[in-house]
Write a structure and sequence with these properties.
The protein is mainly β and 809 residues long. It has 3 helices and 68 strands. The N and C termini lie far apart (85 Å).
């Protein structure tokens, strides 16, 4: 057919056909894009409001039947031009225009419908509320009064209230003419707001349904025509009037193991081999005694290398056991995701303490003991070995090297130059990062990158000083600079480097939930020497750091030297603070002083916390499943202090008094279990080894053995809590002269199988704990062209010896 057509047309006709998109001879003309609107969209929609004499600018867009955009000329219509009239370009006057459309003369209040039309098509109408000027807006409970199910300042998660906004003009309620209000909360995670829609007009009204979401405080506001209300105000019988909305705070969290091959419901401790998993269930109650199933808990692990928390949510968590060792898993409810509002927002005067949302920690942790699978008795690890002898020498005058020594080999490995001379090293809990303190610039080592093609170092400039603490999640570290003037503390984190004006900081520790850090520093105004020439600095002030609030300063009545947290994080134990030989306790939730001060004969050198279920055997008295045991070691004796935490009963309809922190702490009451006799608390164990000079105090993963490394002993002292007996691990003599070797520094492997010890012979000793033996002594080769194993670049006259190690968890 195409051939027949071509035979009848001339070449000129063919050209015309192609030019006109020929329609005969088998061709089809495609449809053109329609210029006619099929749908018109009007904005604003579906409603808006404007005060008398004000302006509203309307715009419109259109699409054709093929959903393509078209641009016809639009005409805007008002259903009552005495209330709302239009000028060109969709500018509406809440009244009537003058003759040249420059002045809007206010008309009556009322409601009109506005539509946009073009070429026969029309938009859906927008409802416009024209009202008198608004002086103020209030937000209250909607009448009839709808109090919470329990007449308290808060409602539990998932419960609802109906709020309403009222607008006033010259003391007259003009709410009906204002129309739609927009509600908002200062913290949208505390409350969910859902507008109540007028079913006839299909627009939001002045009322909303608010649903209690995450526990905490927030304020709720309403706006209309550019005017904002004050915060929502409620009056609660027996409590007072408050200008906030509150989802009832979490009061208590308890953890238990779910059923598995190795546990039964109700247990909080487990023993297993590596490579297994244990389910953990959280039971959560708010202050009204209601059980919550969706509280946004924060889960944390004290030792993720051995006992890790994975696949965690508001109700449960799976504990995995990647390697041998021990650890605890805890849960907490704290800002910025749970118990929101305090101390990060003003709290109304008169609010009962129990209704103030503070961080809450689980009553108990989950404790796990993980053994190696099969016949393996040790887990391979590595040691960063270096020297601090150049710590006061500029990097250009002394380059310090480090060795990454594998426990599975008896060789030192390859030296790697460090950016600056170190004075301290701390690993994070996961063992992925090593934070290094330095007078000339702190930095981080990624051990996995040592010896590789990538840069293993991350600078923390301008931070300087000694590393005091690393956060449990490994994202932050605290450095104290007591060498430069003025002294400063630097906190590294994902937000950068924070500098704090803290003088003479001597110790620091992060809470298990990473929420805050306690720093012991000095305040010269208190009249206590901060950094005396004769000794180490002593902290007479407790500083509390958090990224969510400003630095807090808490004066102490005596210098303090160390701080550690309870197994759940609910309490902080400060070595000193009340006197030189006391342990002072603080509530972590609000940093207040807790009513537990423990007096000891002398100041401890080491302070460790044993979680519930893992106490040394001699002090078993029937209460350990709910307690922490503090071990304090002062060089002559070990004190064992059993503590017990309590949780108050829920609030019931009446104002309550007492501290805002829900947990209390005290010494446990002796409750002997046959055949064990009643014991004093604290119990102490006299070592009868003279006055030791401890540089290391380690516990076996099951907490039955204590390993004491003293600089005046050539043996690692071992105390068995189960038998009350002593033994030792002799340190190998120097092979060159047969003289006894004493320790210079020491650290223990995560699974407790190895103790790494720097000897006075300059060797790295690798000691086995079972069987007890000094397995290997590793030497380090002399660096090229110098006489040192650890320093070069002009440091040939410096005796740079091995004296600083850190064992990878």
């Amino acid at each position: 057919m195409g051939k027949f057509c071509m035979g009848r047309w001339t070449a000129a006709a063919v050209a015309i056909i192609f030019a006109l998109s020929w329609s005969g001879c088998g061709g089809h003309k495609p449809p053109g894009s329609s210029p006619f609107p099929a749908r018109i969209t009007l904005n604003p929609a579906p409603s808006t409001s404007v005060q008398l004499g004000g302006f509203v600018v309307f715009t419109a867009t259109a699409q054709n039947s093929s959903n393509g955009p078209v641009n016809p000329g639009f005409t805007f219509h008002s259903s009552d031009t005495s209330i709302l009239s239009f000028a060109a370009a969709g500018i509406a006057c809440a009244g009537t225009w003058n003759s040249n459309f420059t002045v809007c003369n206010p008309g009556p209040s009322g409601t009109v419908q506005v539509t946009a039309t073009a070429l026969g098509a029309s938009s859906a109408p927008t409802l416009v509320f024209v009202h008198p000027p608004i002086d103020n807006i209030t937000v209250t409970l909607a009448p009839p009064t709808t109090p919470p199910p329990t007449p308290t300042p808060c409602i539990s998660m998932g419960q609802n209230l109906i709020l309403q906004a009222n607008a006033f003009s010259q003391n007259s309620d003009v709410t009906a003419s204002v129309g739609t209000f927009t509600f908002s909360a200062t913290n949208s995670s505390v409350v969910k707001i859902k507008p109540i829609v007028d079913p006839t007009l299909n627009v939001a009204t002045n009322q909303v349904t608010v649903t209690a979401a995450n526990p905490g405080l927030t304020q709720i506001f309403a706006t209309a025509s550019g005017v904002s209300s004050g915060p929502f105000v409620q009056t609660v019988p027996n409590f007072g009037t408050f200008n906030f909305f509150e989802t009832c705070p979490v009061q208590s969290i308890s953890l238990q193991l779910g059923k598995s091959a190795t546990t039964q419901t109700g247990e909080t401790n487990f023993a297993t081999t590596k490579g297994t998993s244990e389910p953990v269930i959280a039971t959560v109650f708010d202050i009204l005694g209601n059980e919550l199933t969706k509280a946004p808990l924060t889960w944390s692990s004290s030792n993720p290398v051995a006992v890790a928390s994975t696949s965690c949510n508001s109700q449960s968590c799976t504990v995995t056991t990647p390697n041998a060792g021990s650890g605890t898993v805890t849960a907490s409810c704290g800002p910025p995701t749970c118990n929101i509002g305090f101390p990060f927002a003003p709290v109304p005067v008169g609010l009962p303490p129990q209704f103030v949302p503070v961080p809450v920690y689980s009553v108990n942790p989950i404790s796990g003991l993980v053994a190696s699978a099969g016949n393996t008795t040790t887990t391979a690890t590595s040691v960063l070995a270096t020297s601090s002898d150049c710590k006061d020498i500029r990097p250009q005058d002394c380059t310090t090297f480090t060795y990454n020594v594998s426990s599975s080999k008896s060789v030192s490995g390859t030296p790697t130059p460090l950016p600056s001379a170190p004075n301290s090293i701390l690993f994070d809990h996961a063992g992925d990062k090593a934070y290094v303190g330095s007078r000339f610039g702190a930095f981080m080592i990624t051990p996995a990158s040592l010896g590789g093609s990538g840069n293993p170092f991350t600078s923390f400039a301008p931070a300087t000083g000694t590393v005091l603490a690393v956060s449990p999640n490994g994202s932050s570290a605290i450095f104290s600079d007591v060498k430069h003037t003025p002294n400063q503390v630097y906190v590294t984190g994902t937000g950068g480097i924070t500098s704090l004006a803290i003088n003479g900081a001597v110790a620091a520790e992060f809470s298990p939930d990473n929420l805050k850090a306690y720093i012991l520093g000095c305040n010269s105004a208190l009249g206590v020497a901060c950094n005396t020439p004769a000794g180490a600095p002593a902290g007479n002030t407790l500083y509390v750091f958090s990224t969510l609030q400003s630095l807090q300063t808490i004066p102490l009545t005596a210098p303090a030297t160390a701080v550690t947290f309870s197994s759940t994080g609910a309490f902080a134990f400060v070595n000193g603070g009340s006197s030189g030989s006391t342990i002072t306790t603080f509530n972590t939730c609000d940093n207040s002083l807790a009513p537990l001060t423990i007096s000891l004969p002398s100041a401890p050198t080491f302070l460790k916390v044993l979680p519930p279920g893992n106490p040394p055997t001699p002090i078993v008295d029937g209460g350990f499943n709910q307690t922490d045991v503090l071990l304090a070691f002062d060089g002559t004796r070990i004190d064992l202090i059993e503590t017990v935490a309590t949780v108050p009963a829920p609030v019931v309809n009446v104002p309550a008094s007492g501290p805002s922190c829900p947990q209390g702490i005290s010494l446990a009451v002796s409750n002997p279990v046959p055949p064990f006799p009643a014991v004093d608390n604290p119990l102490f164990i006299v070592l009868n080894q003279g006055t030791l000079q401890p540089i290391g105090f380690f516990l076996s993963p099951d907490d039955t053995l204590a390993y004491i490394v003293s600089s005046n002993l050539s043996t690692v002292l071992v105390y068995n809590f189960s038998t009350g007996s002593f033994s030792g691990i002799p340190i190998a003599n120097n092979p060159s002269n047969g003289q006894p070797v004493t320790p210079v520094a020491a650290s223990m492997s995560n699974d407790g199988s190895l103790i790494f010890l720097v000897g006075s012979d300059g060797l790295l000793h690798q000691l086995s704990t079972n069987p007890p033996a000094d397995l290997t002594q590793i030497s380090f080769p002399t660096l090229p062209n110098v006489t040192n194993s650890f320093c070069s670049n002009g440091a040939t006259a410096i005796s740079c010896a091995l004296n600083l190690i850190a064992v990878k968890p």
